Amino acid sequence: MSELTEPVVIIDYGMGNVGSIANMLRKLELPSKITGDPSEIARATRLILPGVGAFDHGMRQLESLGLLSVLHRKALHERVPILGICLGMQLFSRQSEEGRLAGLGWIDADVRRFRSNEAAPLRVPHMGWNLMTPFQAHPVFQNLNGEWRFYFVHSYHVCCDYSADVAGVTSYGKPFVSAVARENLVGVQFHPEKSHRFGMQLLENFARWNYSPSQKPSVNSPLSVCENSLLTGRGVPHLEPRVIPCLLLKRGGLVKTVRFRRPNYVGDPINAVRIFNDKQVDELTFLDITASLENRSPDYDLIRRIAGEAFMPIAYGGGVRNVDDIRRIIQTGVEKVVINSQAAVNRSFLRAAADQVGSQSIVASIDVRRRLFGRYEVFSHSGTRPTGKDPVTYAQEMADAGAGEIVLNSIDRDGAMRGYDISLLQSVTSAVSIPVIALGGASCMEDFHAAIHQGGASAVAAGSLFVYRGKHRAVLITYPEKTVLNSTLARDAPCLSNLQPLRNGHLRSRYHIRHEWSLQPLPCL
Fold first, then answer.
1. 367 a catalytic residue
2. Cα angle at 242 between 237 and 248, to 5 degrees?
3. Strands 133-134 and 166-172
4. Which one, out of 188, 197, 315, 416, has a CA that is 20 to 30 A from the CA of 204?
5. Closest CA to 89 of 31, 20, 156
6. pTM
7. Which of 165, 282, 367, 414 is catalytic?
8. DSSP 8-state assignment for residue 77
9. Nearest one of 337, 260, 278, 265 to 303, comparing CA atoms
10. d(CA 342, CA 126)
């Protein structure tokens, strides 16, 4: 490792959240430069190739910008350190099942889609926080102190021909390669720029790494389609359920609603992001609740400022009307774009968006109201327009159209803090194979547990629970400690009877939690 004198060059080819990487390097006080200019890339002493989206589109973008020849020269002849992130790592390979074009071919590997079957059912994309198990020692993975927790969002994974190219393994259904390394090349399937201190350390290691030719690995055994016994047992199954603060925007400010009505101002979104950064939340979702109603475009300046402060994954929705809007939002540093109103009127829009940026970046928002005789109906445009569709059929249409995830929101329970609608959740999660986020009604962590283990949700989101305190709903942003979440969200949680709701909707627990989460031992029943 050494002091950095030359900037880390982040390759901008229209396929990655380059701003987030630059923001994290700036936080580390390391120089960086974002560019898609071949002449500037030719002068670089180290490169980062990020990527969010579809394999073929990524290769076309590199070719159209005239970057292929200079990248081959830097990688194979000058041998400058290159870090590939997510799609960027996949482009190191020969080819992908996702498309027809050849990849860069720097690693003897192919890219395959996650397989789901009755014996090993998986929700695809693989989305959330998971553990990487090191497969070989590498300078980029130094000083992590055994903490290998990173944020993943992808539907495809790399399958290496040889074990020498495998740097890290993660488990999702079965072990898969989550990091590769060959000489000056390093690739990671996860997003270090959105993985809090874990990713921050990895990026610093890469920025200070001086590559020098090393001895050949002592083990270079062939791997058969990523199922060789060398990988068995290497990936620890640990995809964590995500707990996501969902924050509503109205004309630049944070608001909170009750049943989609009476928006109440609760603060500044930038300050909220800074607080949630400190608490290392799993993910943040921002929804502009009036953009579509007012026929406004997304507020790109505000989105850019939010993304510039966030070192966790961000999803944004509101006012999205075309694929160019989606690309611009992702380029600001947002990982996922939430689509509601436009999807209701134009299903082909979702497919076009997924083809451009990848289904893992497209979230379909489904707002549901209970009608007479218990019938559910989907509404769009902030709950103002009935679609005539039931949520199960609608969710299946969204998944078929290319959405990689669904946010299922109960209008009736929005801001009411009386628990998620478990029957609604069960009906939708059993009908689709993509991840579903539960939203609307959370009052305590026991509600989270029920949504995940009874409702089948892959993640839970809440608003009031994270911004209000007390029966008078004083504004106080909060988030439970990660150890508490892990303990209480586990399927075999030791004793949920230790979690007792208070009158204000919070829980008191025998576990230590920050700020207003208090200590109160209760007997197990």
1. yes
2. 165
3. antiparallel
4. 315
5. 156
6. 0.87
7. 367
8. I
9. 337
10. 25
